[in-house]
Amino acid sequence: MNNSVPEIGSPARTKAILNRYRLVAKKSLGQNFLSDLNILRNIVSAADVSENDNVIEIGPGIGALTEQIALKARKVVAFEIDENLLPVLDETLLPYDNVKIINQDILKANLPDVIRDEFEPGHPLKLVANLPYYITTPILMGVLQSNVAFDQIVVMMQKEVADRLSAEPGNKEYGSLSVVMQYRANVEIAFEVPRTAFIPQPNVDSAIIRLTPRESLPVTPYDDKALFGFVKGCFAHRRKSLWNNLQGIFGKQPEVRERIETVLNKVDISRQLRPERLTLLNFIELVNAFHDEGLM
After folding, report:
1. 80 a known binding residue?
2. Where, by residue number, does S-adenosyl-L-methionine bind (predicted)?
């Protein structure tokens, strides 16, 4: 790389690129351009990207994070949905021969096929991205359900969503999203990012979360989708007890109520508990017990 050219993520270079191409961040695509080199480098460090790693990126924008990944990684494949950014990326990432840009919506991509076609096997696979905030959860769930074995996922998102994903039982942020995400992976907040780090500034603060493959659970649900639907139903009315939410799921007929009580006694969970007090394993035990009871 030409050392006389400032890095893409520096405020001066970011502004120059936006002005040159007359780019305006598109709210419809959740675009905000991160222009803080320290934060960009810290994201790459949080993923521990090395020259042996293959990396998927989502939403490269003008290439600020892509450049920092490319400086460390073996190869980067980035999905960019906005066609207007393709000529920008062609220019900004020209010095890097280990970057491939794919003009496609990540939600419509066949990720296993792309990975098979673009990466040499036998190298760690990571996902590092500044996610569009309006579709953070669908993207993450899509990636986690794609059967791609990522060694690590490090992504930026709205801090409020990061708090929900990483919340533990008993925390007011803990809900169905926490349970479903933590079923798929270990979740932790790596660090927070102030809104001042972006051009233009968003109305919210951000956070970087790190997802790593979770260890095997001592109990597994009889069906993943049944578990997710059940958890969502249990959190339908947060202020109500587990008992009331279970009646909302299964019904209030005397015979059904009796069977619900049988299940709660079997797994030794109080009907008075609120759903946010239950652990992931509690939910799995419950869904399996209701299945055994014939209610699911």
Report:
1. yes
2. 32, 34, 59, 80, 105, 130
| Average pLDDT for 1-6 | 68
Predicted pLDDT at 220: 96
Q: Which element (helix H / strand E) includes 178? A: helix 176-184
165 is in an annotated binding site: no
Q: Considering the entire predicted model, what is its pTM?
A: 0.92
Q: Nearest Cα to 139, choosing from 166, 107, 162?
A: 107
Q: Rounded to the nearest 5 degrees, what angle is found at the Cα of 126, between the Cα atoms of 121 and 127? A: 130
Is 245 annotated as belonging to a binding site? Answer: no
| 103 annotated as a binding-site residue | no
Query: What pLDDT shows up at residue 239?
Result: 87
248 annotated to a ligand binding site: no
How many residues would you count in the chain?
296
Check pLDDT > 80 for residue 67.
Answer: yes
Any known ligand binding at 282? no
How is residue 115 written in tokens? Answer: 């990975």
In the predicted model, is pLDDT for residue 281 greater than 80? yes
Contact residues for 238 (Cβ-Cβ < 8 A; gap 6+):
175, 274, 275, 276
